[in-house]
Amino acid sequence: MTSVRLGGTIGIIGGGQLGKMLAQSALRMGYRVAILDPSEDAPARSTCHTFIHAAFSDFDALSQLCEISDVVTYEFENIDAHILRTLVNDYHVPQGAETVLTLQNRDLEKTAIRDSGADVVPYEKVTDANTLGQFIDTHGLPVIVKTTTGGYDGKGQMLIETEADLQSLDIPFDEAEWVVEKYLKLEREVSLTVARNVSGQVIHFPLQENLHKNQILYRTIAPARVDYMDEAKTAVDKIMNAMHFVGVFTVECFIDQDGKLYVNEIAPRPHNSAHHTIESCNISQFDAHILAILDHPMPEVYQHQAAVMMNLLGDDLDRLEAKLFTEPKWHVHIYGKDGRKPARKMGHVTVLTDDLEDALGALEQKFIKGV
Ligand code: ADP
Ligand code: MG
Hints:
It contains 12 helices and 17 strands. By secondary structure, the protein is an alpha+beta fold. α1 (17-28) crosses α10 (285-293). The mean pLDDT is 95.
């Protein structure tokens, strides 16, 4: 049972949209919130009692956050290993350091998933053109090369479809570490969001179906239009038996054209594909995370209605700004980021619907054609 009383302070490392929505859950439940973020206009600055403006590498500032907090969590997963281990040692950080440190690195992450017994797409760490060539000899083209650290929304990835691509690509092997993996023809992408509290209680959200555009999440449909919950749960159970999880996490999966499910990657924090849970479920992924790290018993999840979630990128806002709040069925979230860029995630919209295909069609009209 939780040792943090209502009114206690939850410290969050990172004040982007995930930190903001975590804070909104915590505030609604009666907790105080402290946030650390390097950006002066971080979205979560407006949703906390104390804001510490500091770099994620600023050990003194992070210690200060921990000092004023009864429990500490993170929305930012690339915290320096040494700093995180020290904080975990000295303060109440129930998620610990080891899982997030493994998941920071694609090579370690994929190895841990494979070792748990869940299926991953064939991959290999590559250090030069030779090791890359050997992988391609074994597995054939196409392949995708990804940096082992720091990549998100498709950043740090290179697709190699042909021999000519391979010849013309100049992968900077000296500047970063890389993994190569077989590039699959995907039938679907799905994700399963799960929360586990400190005592080990586990709850599952509905299976989500994810559509990507330019490797950025474009739409989530929940529940997924394919019945893969059992396969996804089996994979997640294997991973949970092998790795220690506390809080909310999302497992991204590929389904190939033979119907086989592979685990792609794991996010040890709230995930874009589960934003729909705010409106569509009895408990959101953000609520679940707060309850889990506080070691509260959690309710079983049920979904009120099917949902479509879409991200609002900068250029969507340019087109739709005047019409955003006129749609009766749109639940609009704007994160409050300064600096609108065409492909930057500025917000999202969730639509609850009894007719997914109809809702998707209507959104397509509005988003693409702006009518
Ligand atoms: P990120 O950390 O940027 O989310 P991912 O590995 O999840 O990186 O890749 C982003 C997207 O790129 C995936 O959701 C998928 O659409 C596509 N992708 C990545 N790897 C593969 C692959 N091996 N085969 C097919 N599609 C892939
Ligand atoms: Mg991904």
